[in-house]
Structure formats: C-alpha cells, structure tokens
Write a structure and sequence with these properties.
Elements: E1 7-16, E2 23-33, E3 38-42, H1 49-57, E4 64-69, E5 72-73, E6 81-84, H2 96-106, H3 111-124, H4 140-153, E7 158-162, H5 170-187, E8 190-194, H6 198-204, E9 207-211, E10 218-223, H7 236-249, H8 261-269
Parallel strand pairs: 3-8, 3-9, 6-7, 7-8
Antiparallel strand pairs: 1-2, 1-4, 4-5, 9-10
Helix pairs in contact: 2-3, 2-4, 3-4, 4-5, 6-7
C-alpha cells in the first residue's frame, strides 16, 4: 500500500446553484488531517459533511479555497482513495466478489489479479466462502463488511466513510466499529468518518471536527487521544470527550458567525459541559 497522505482544507467554501440565489453548503473550512490519522466529522443534518467527503474524493469541486491530498490539489478522483457511501453502493445484480472487484475493473486491473485481490480482501473481513452470493443473500453486517472489502481491494491510502453503520442495530454496529478499528490499525491509511453518532465519533476519531448548522463552519476541533484502542469505550476519558462533543453540538447551530479561536480552544480544551452524556445521535 502507498504511504498515507495528509489531507488539507484551505478556506474551503461550497455553494450550489447560481451565485445570485445559490445555496451555501460549506463556508471557510480550514483544517488538516495528518497522514495515517483517523478523524470523525460530525454536525447537524444538512451542514455539508457529505459534501466535504466528496471534495476529498474528487467528486465535487469547492467554490472557493482548495482541498489538498498529499500536498496536491484534488482535481479529479484519486486511484487510491476509497469512499464508502451511506447506502454502501453495492450492485444487487453482481455477486459479492464482483462487487468487491468493480473498482479494480474500472482501473483496468487484469481480471485474474482483480479476483485474487478481491478474494484476499473478502478473507480479511471474514467473508471467505461467500464470493458467489448476491448482496440480498447477505445480512446487513455482511453487506457492511463487503463494502470494507471493496475498499481494501483497491489498495487504498485514504478511506472516506459516509455514515456506513447508520442502518444496523447497536450491538452489530459496535462489532463493525471494532472491525474498522482493526482495518485502520493494520492498513495505516488516513481516514475520515462522517457520522451522526457521538459515541462512534469518539470511539473512532483521534480528533472530532464539529460543524455548525447550515452553512457548515468548523465550530470545534476536539482532541481524543484515547481513540484507537478497544478499552477506550469504558474509560472516563471517553465519557469526557463525549460531553465535549455534545457541548459543541448544543452551541449555536445557525452558523451565522464563524467561531473565534478562543471558542474553538475552549470547546476542545476546556471543562466539559456536564449536561450532555454519550448518545447515539448527535
């Protein structure tokens, strides 16, 4: 796998429609994700989280500012960036193995090599023996793992995930969070996770970036040093970081005024807001 790149947002704004009456989705985003780091992006519905992922993936271009991956502006989709959309993007008419190898086929990888890498990826996520199954024949958790396998097969160095675990029950969700944690630890890729779950963000994100309501602006950048270990969920630090994220989400949601540096520092480094505990919904 290629070495993991750094991701940078330099004063990025995004608007849809005509300049005179368009809709501003994101405004003045400035942050970076260090090479090999795991960052969670959380905020109210409609604040532009998915749009931020699409810009990293090269599927959407910013209206202003620039997005860099590995020091280079993203002008088109990168070969080694994998995106898992909210609906997983599985093709119901293709077998599990063909779903895993579809990205390799698009990249003109030889069929024999693509299938070898696909089988290896399915084995890595515990789906060996299901190569000929169709998505409808797999459980929800197995479909999630199939999406992970497709990303692994691409030999990715960046993994982008748009609420990939939102449609499954709590217990299975925790198991798949552990699977994502193991994948990140073994692969060393840079990853960005969009989620509405505070607990998921704090379990998987070494930093949690909190966006305001429409248009999306960065209101908090919260350090989370315990992320990356299975024991983090049961620690007092986990609960404290959950409270910090809740405090940031409970702040002004209109996004009318960009947060000052002092506000960002206070939310990410100051005393936790005691009114909010952990919650599955942010």
């Amino acid at each position: 796998m290629p070495s993991a790149p750094r991701i940078e947002f330099n004063d990025v704004s995004l608007s849809y429609g005509r300049p005179s009456d368009g809709t501003e989705a994101l405004s003045g985003l400035r942050f970076s994700v260090e090479a090999g780091a795991s960052v969670a992006l959380i905020g109210p519905s409609g604040c532009g989280k998915s749009s931020a992922l699409r810009m990293i993936a090269g599927l959407t271009s910013p209206t202003a500012g620039e997005v860099l991956v590995g020091g280079r502006p993203v002008a088109k989709p990168r070969r080694s960036t994998a995106l898992i959309p909210q609906n997983l993007g599985l093709f119901p008419w293709k077998t599990a193995l063909d779903n895993v190898t579809v990205g390799l086929s698009i990249r003109k990888v030889a069929r024999s090599e693509a299938r070898r890498r696909g089988r290896e990826a399915m084995r890595e996520v515990g789906l060996e023996g299901f190569e000929a199954a169709y998505p409808r024949e797999l459980s929800g958790g197995m479909q999630q793992r199939l999406a992970f396998a497709r990303a692994i097969a691409l030999d990715m160095d960046v993994l982008l995930m748009d609420e990939p675990l939102s449609a499954i029950d709590a217990l299975l969700r925790e198991q798949l969070q552990d699977a994502l944690l193991d994948l990140w630890a073994s692969s060393g890729h840079t990853q960005v996770l969009v989620t509405h779950s505070i607990e998921e963000a704090v379990y998987l994100g070494q930093r949690i970036l909190v966006l305001s309501g429409h248009p999306g602006r960065l209101v908090a950048d919260i350090a989370n040093s315990g992320a990356g270990t299975r024991s983090h969920r049961d620690s007092s630090e986990f609960a404290a970081v959950c409270r910090k994220v809740r405090a940031a989400l409970d702040g002004p949601r209109s996004g009318a005024d960009a947060p000052s540096d002092s506000v960002l520092h206070e939310v990410s480094g100051g005393p936790a807001n005691e009114k909010g505990g952990c919650s599955h919904e942010g």
